[in-house]
């Protein structure tokens, strides 16, 4: 098949790893021809280019600034994005008759691109629904309800309408989408975040092997970032913005000082990073190391040598979310500590399948209780091993590939 993939995720090379490139490489390895459009922001150096690999053509399409800028500039860039992507498709793939168009949210503004290419090529369309906008922005106060309805709701409906199939991240996502939209249930399914896993299963499933290999890296990396080696390390890595409810995270870290064995490492960047930095400067917490992002190689090592991976989502969300950082925790065989709104099912899935503990993100006491429980090494090893098994059974790119391709075989 000739496949076109449209994404806002920055992809620098076909050799990149992550939930999108792992899946695209899986398609390519199966013999499909994959064409990818990814943004190259105005503020970034370099010229628009095509980078090729076996069965993959990656276009880094010149766009306006989409990340780390003011709302006005971001809004203008989003408005221009569809025409820029469409121009790139016609410029670099003028003779290609696409059989399948894959595209992810955000953004919803690519609906016009998908519709035009679908009409001209007859391609099937598959939406990888990674967030539900604009309602997610309304929930945490970024957009007023009337603005969301007036500016974005019609575009969201259009996106669902032109999609032949919609892959959601979890069962709760499917339920929400069907409840709040007039969509044929036959075209909506669970197609979760997934990654490529290339390890020896017999070794990875051994709790003793996991612990032994982790210790080899631990002392060196912890010394580099001034992290104590004799504590249970709770790691959060990723975006530090409004969706994570940084004031709640700060309150949890303050109260968790009563659990002497627990130590927190927060690594990432985002619009709310300054609040954490101010907290560290003022209170100088003895149980926290704050790191403003890391090279990917160092972050991957940090996950590997940590004891627990944390997930935070604002308690006000009415839409289910399913953060992809879960996969990096499961891949390294560490349990997850989930703290989210009541509508998101990631915590329920973790507890039902015995690979983590969960509480709502408006209850500090429950969070502290779970932190205390996870200082038990035996519990952590059991949960971590269960999590790795669950990853292999549910969150591999081979599984996602099968879900998508069963519509076309």
UniProtKB/TrEMBL annotation:
Ranges where the Glycosyl transferase family domain occurs: 217-389
Span of domain Glycosyltransferase subfamily 4-like N-terminal: 21-198
Pfam families: Glyco_transf_4 (PF13439), Glycos_transf_1 (PF00534)
Signal sequence extent: none
PANTHER family: GLYCOSYLTRANSFERASE, LIPOPOLYSACCHARIDE BIOSYNTHESIS PROTEIN
Name of this chain's protein: Glycosyltransferase family 4 protein
Organism: Catonella massiliensis
Taxonomic lineage of the native organism: Bacteria, Bacillati, Bacillota, Clostridia, Lachnospirales
């Amino acid at each position: 098949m000739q496949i076109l993939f449209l994404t806002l995720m920055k992809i620098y090379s076909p050799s990149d790893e992550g939930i999108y490139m792992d899946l695209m490489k899986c398609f390519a390895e199966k013999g499909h021809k994959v064409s990818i459009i990814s943004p190259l922001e105005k503020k970034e150096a370099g010229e628009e280019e095509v980078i090729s690999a076996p069965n993959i053509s990656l276009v880094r399409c010149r766009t306006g600034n989409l990340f780390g800028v003011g709302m006005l500039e971001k809004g203008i860039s989003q408005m221009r994005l569809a025409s820029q992507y469409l121009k790139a498709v016609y410029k670099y793939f003028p003779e290609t008759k696409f059989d399948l168009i894959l595209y992810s949210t955000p953004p919803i503004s690519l609906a016009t691109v998908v519709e035009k290419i679908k009409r001209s090529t007859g391609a099937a369309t598959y939406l990888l629904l990674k967030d539900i906008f604009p309602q997610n922005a309304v929930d945490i106060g970024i957009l007023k309800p009337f603005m969301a309805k007036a500016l974005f709701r019609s575009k969201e409906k259009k996106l669902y309408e032109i999609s032949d199939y919609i892959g959601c991240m979890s069962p709760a996502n499917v339920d929400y989408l069907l409840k709040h939209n007039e969509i044929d249930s036959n075209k909506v399914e669970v197609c979760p975040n997934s990654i490529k896993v290339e390890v020896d299963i017999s070794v990875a499933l051994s709790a003793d092997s996991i612990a032994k290999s982790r210790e080899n890296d631990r002392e060196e990396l912890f010394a580099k970032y001034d992290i104590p080696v004799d504590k249970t390390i709770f790691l959060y890595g990723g975006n530090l913005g409004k969706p994570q409810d940084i004031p709640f995270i700060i309150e949890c870290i303050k109260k968790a000082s009563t659990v002497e064995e627990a130590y927190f490492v927060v690594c990432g960047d985002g619009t709310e990073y300054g609040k954490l930095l101010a907290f560290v400067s003022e209170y100088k917490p003895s149980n926290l190391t704050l790191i403003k992002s890391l090279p990917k190689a160092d972050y991957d090592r940090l996950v590997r040598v940590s004891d627990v991976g944390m997930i935070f989502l604002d308690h006000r969300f009415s839409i289910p979310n399913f953060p992809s950082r879960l996969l990096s925790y499961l891949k390294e065989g560490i349990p997850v500590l989930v703290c989210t709104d009541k509508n998101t099912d990631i915590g329920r899935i973790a507890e039902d399948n015995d690979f983590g503990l969960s509480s709502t993100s408006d209850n500090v006491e429950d969070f502290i209780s779970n932190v205390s429980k996870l200082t038990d090494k035996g519990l952590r090893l059991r949960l971590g091993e269960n999590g790795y098994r669950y990853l292999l059974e549910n969150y591999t790119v081979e599984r996602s590939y099968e879900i998508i391709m069963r519509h076309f075989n």
